[in-house]
Amino acid sequence: MIQPTIEEINNKLKKVIDNEITRVEVGNWALDFILNDDNVEIRNTKAWHYLVSVSSIDEMITSNGYLYSIEDIKEWIKESNEL
């Protein structure tokens, strides 16, 4: 299994922003790579660390509020272009 690229991660995040997939789906997708890291070919450590950060996209701070806002997610995408 090959780790996702920064572009692939950003595509998932854009789908969250566009309400095409849920935060939970993206969090689980990222977490699957992390939990199976013995079977993942890590080709880019910056992308790997980005994936680890994205795995917490569905963290809740209140019963109806997420730790990371849509604006935070947009900022992640923007910052990822500098990686």
Labels describing this entry:
single chain; 83 residues; mainly alpha; two-stranded antiparallel sheet; 2 strands
Largest sheet: 2 strands, antiparallel
The computed structural class is: mainly alpha
Number of distinct beta strands: 2
Mean pLDDT: 96
Indicate the low-confidence ranges by residue numbers. Answer: none
Main sheet: strand order: 1-2
Distance between the termini: 22 Å
**Percent of residues in beta strands:** 5-15%
Assign a percent range to the helix content.
Answer: 55-70%
Output the radius of gyration: 12 Å
Order of helices and strands: HHHEEH
What coarse outline follows from CA principal-axis ratios?
globular
Number of helices: 4
Question: What report would you give on this structure?
Answer:
By secondary structure, this protein is mainly α. Helices cover 55% and strands 6% of the residues. The protein contains 4 helices and 2 strands. It has helices at residues 6-17, 23-35, 45-54, 70-80; strands at residues 60-62, 65-66. A two-stranded antiparallel ribbon has the order 1-2. A hairpin with a 2-residue loop joins strand 1 (60-62) and strand 2. Helix 1 packs antiparallel against helix 4 (70-80). The longest helix has 13 residues, at 23-35. The radius of gyration is 12 Å and the shape is globular. The protein starts with 5 loop residues before the first helix and ends with a helix. The model has no long low-confidence stretch (mean pLDDT 96).
